[in-house]
Write a structure and sequence with these properties.
Elements lengths: L5 H9 L2 E3 L2 E2 L5 E6 L15 E7 L8 H10 L4 E2 L2 E6 L5 H20 L13 H21 L10
Antiparallel strand pairs: 1-2, 3-4, 4-6, 5-6
Length: 157
C-alpha cells in the first residue's frame, strides 16, 4: 500500500492563493503555449514562450459557491463559455511567463470574488458647510460683477 504522494503536498503549497486558504488547484488549470511575437535573439523565435492559462470558472469546485457566482457575474465580459483565459508573453522564458500568468489569474480571481463594499450611508450636509458654500458663491459673484465695465467700452470687453 502506498501513502499520499509527497509531491502532491509540495504542488499544493505552490498553488497560488486566491484569498484566505482558498487556492487555485493545479488539476483544474490548463496551459497552452505558442510563439511570442516581438524582438528576441536567435533562439527566442523558435520556442513557445507565450503562455495561455485557462481556468473553467463555470465548472470549478475549488471556489465556494457564492464566490464562484460572484466571479462569474463580475468577469462575464472576459469569459468564453465559462472559461477564464489569461495570457502572458512579456518574458523571454516560458517559466517566467507561467509564473506571471498564475499571479495574474490569482489576482483577477481575488478581485472578482471579493465581497461587495458596504452600502454607503447617506449623510446630511452640515449647516457650516452650507453656509461656507453660499458665502463663497456670493464672493465669486461679487468678483465677477466687479469685472464688468458695461457694454460698448473702447477695449471691446
Amino acid at each position: 500500500m502506498s501513502g499520499p504522494d509527497p509531491s502532491d503536498a509540495r504542488r499544493a503549497d505552490r498553488a497560488p492563493v486566491i484569498r484566505g486558504s482558498v487556492r487555485l488547484p493545479e488539476s483544474e488549470l490548463r496551459w497552452r503555449f505558442s510563439r511570442s511575437s516581438g524582438p528576441g535573439g536567435q533562439h527566442v523565435n523558435t520556442t513557445d514562450t507565450q503562455v495561455e492559462l485557462l481556468f473553467d470558472l463555470d465548472a470549478t469546485r475549488a471556489l465556494p459557491e457564492a464566490w464562484r457566482r460572484r466571479a462569474l457575474e463580475r468577469l462575464e465580459g472576459r469569459l468564453s463559455d465559462g472559461v477564464l483565459v489569461v495570457r502572458a508573453a512579456e518574458h523571454r522564458s516560458q517559466w517566467r511567463n507561467r509564473q506571471a500568468a498564475l499571479t495574474r489569474m490569482a489576482a483577477l480571481l481575488a478581485e472578482a470574488t471579493a465581497p461587495p463594499p458596504p452600502p454607503r450611508k447617506p449623510r446630511r450636509t452640515s449647516r457650516g458647510a452650507k453656509e461656507r458654500r453660499l458665502r463663497d458663491k456670493k464672493h465669486r459673484a461679487d468678483l465677477k460683477r466687479g469685472r464688468s465695465t458695461g457694454r460698448g467700452s473702447a477695449d471691446g470687453w
